[in-house]
Design brief:
Length: 209
């Protein structure tokens, strides 16, 4: 599969052959969905927490005697049916949502999503992606000249190039990620993927060998 190569001015400068091992992987929706669910579950922060009747302060004394008052019997004012009592069946922060997905499955799903991006012309390849200075204005000007237009896009940059990340992080509908840290969730959150030819080589080296 071949795709057009652009420079940072948005002009076509040639074509590049995309590696089959990365961009011609048959799509399996079930596998991609499974990997996506596992990644979002593993990133979930369990902060909501309610106290049960054993954790709520107070309620040690019986509200009134067992018999003779004409009222229902109660042993504590911290019962779930009392105001200020414990919560029955509420969220707890000790719940574990972690899911384990083998590395081969994660990588396979990643390559499937990249293949779909290339198949539907949602992959924008640059001859080079270099920023001398971390200037958001320069990055925004470059992105606006590319075919991605105003749609959401993920800029995949070479490992260690912090200027690209710093320049892209404040642009609306724009994400930035090192090629070695690409994952299914990031790719699915953005419509286009902007990457350099060196980045494609890095992906092939990282995820297929």
């Amino acid at each position: 599969m071949k795709t057009t190569v652009y420079n940072q001015e948005g002009k076509e400068v040639g074509e590049v052959s995309l590696p089959k091992a990365v961009f011609e992987v048959p799509f399996n929706a079930d596998l991609v969905h499974q990997v996506m669910i596992s990644q979002t579950a593993n990133a979930r922060q369990v902060s909501a927490h309610t106290k049960n009747r054993g954790e709520v302060r107070g309620g040690g004394r019986k509200p009134w005697r067992q018999k003779g008052t004409g009222r229902a019997r109660h042993g504590s004012t911290r019962s779930p049916i009392w105001k200020g009592g414990g919560v029955s069946g509420g969220p707890r922060n000790d719940k574990n949502y972690e899911r384990i997905i083998p590395q081969k499955m994660r990588r396979k799903a990643l390559l499937m999503v990249l293949s779909e991006k290339a198949k539907h012309n949602l992959l924008v390849v640059l001859d080079s992606l270099n920023m001398e200075k971390a200037k958001t204005k320069a990055m925004a000007a470059m992105i606006n000249k590319l075919p991605a237009g105003r749609a959401s896009r993920l800029v995949a940059y070479n490992n260690g190039d912090k200027n690209v990340f710093l320049a892209a992080r404040n642009i609306v509908k724009t994400g930035a990620s090192e090629t070695r840290n690409l994952n299914v969730v990031n790719l699915l959150n953005y419509k286009y993927v902007v990457i350099s030819k060196d980045g494609i080589e890095e992906i092939e080296k990282t995820f297929t060998k």
